[in-house]
Structure prediction request, 466 residues.
Amino acid sequence: MRAPPRMIRALGWCWLVMGSAAMVFLALAVALGEAAAARGLGLTGVIGVFIGAVIVVSTRGADRPARAPAALRLALLGWITCPLLAAPSLAPLAGGLQEGVFEAYSAMTTTGASLADPDTAPRSLVLWRAALQWLGGFASLVLAVTVFAALDQRGAGIRRSTLLTVHDNNLFTNMGRTSRRLGGLYALLTLLGVVLLMVTGAELFDALCLAMSGISTGGMSPRGEPLAAWLPVPGILALALICLIGAWNFALIYEMITRRRLSRSASDLRAMLALCLMTGVVAGLAGGAAWTGPVSALEALFAVTTSGFQLGEGGPILPPAVLILLALLGGSAVSTAGGIKMPRVILLVRRAGEELSHLAHPSAAVFTRFAGRKASDEALVSVWVYALAFPLALGIGTAVLGACGLDFETAWQVAGASLSNAGPLAQVDYAAMSGGAWIAASAIMVLGRLEVLAAAAAIFVLLKGE
Prediction:
């Protein structure tokens, strides 16, 4: 099966950007005298720059339209190959090449599960790992606004925005424009996050890592201890705000900044905040201590944004199952968060309420509205299919991880945290898992990043062709 030149060119740009970024951190590693880190970063940089540049130059002038199958292949192959390219650079951090592969997949899919101890790791690699999360979050945004928005045009349109007009007959048309628009906004919000964290008590290095990890909802911390052990309370609240921004709709944020208006309501943001507040209230009433409610609300916020940052030394107040279920709900559609996505959940809840209303008033006209439009039955069916795909994937992932030697509880927690791209919520020692379990968990991370159905469609296209 011959791959379209436009798809190969886009993949080449991904590798070129990865390699160029690694070269920047190579210079940092050399300046800090971190030889092992420099070797790994150099290998990633040379491979990425060389192969990426060759592909970009050799496909110059390629203008053949690329439709949905090519875009799906790009999404899948990008999430498979880019972490493999980054793996040699993270091998010194994680303790070996196989460990580096797991660490790279976890970072770039913004899952946040880690095998490394950041307290003893080279500083250049800790910062590089945060940058990989940042790049993975940016890639998620670009794919959401271009590829997935086009594929969702016949559905509920949860990614529809005024950011750009998507051409479904050539899905690569606006990737460059989208990257520039979202890239500027993404970088600006990250920079503001760094400043906010420093103002609220974080050191510069920690602020850089946390801002990149927070805006990408990656969840990897620059220190091995929980946040409460070293970050002041104002800093934790600032990080929570950054994660919330990362999990909200970037297309709406872009509209707010450039047009000073919103084309649709912020119902998904309100739903996330309401979930956190309700969780905190229930936990506070059940726990008794005065601080139980606020801490539980913060834990819920880090869960529903799928960042998964850990607050206290003794572990979270909320059970892992509750946190993982919150993470599976996910953030907004055009965001760096994982999960089913809150707009789909809102649609299903609204539809359920209207069906109950129809039972009480059989003659009433029942229809569901989303973003000011009536949602068709076809759109609602697509939402249901997405919602049902996640439990199915969770069950299969649990079974596969169980076959790799994990007990049922651990397998379910790892599968749920990986599928929702919220690795720290599993509350397990990933380093104690087998190599097979690392591979399975990495595959589930990619599946979750592609929202299950898109991954299944991409695999089908790779096997069967267009």
Summary: The chain has 17 helices and two strands. Strands lie at 368-370, 373-375.
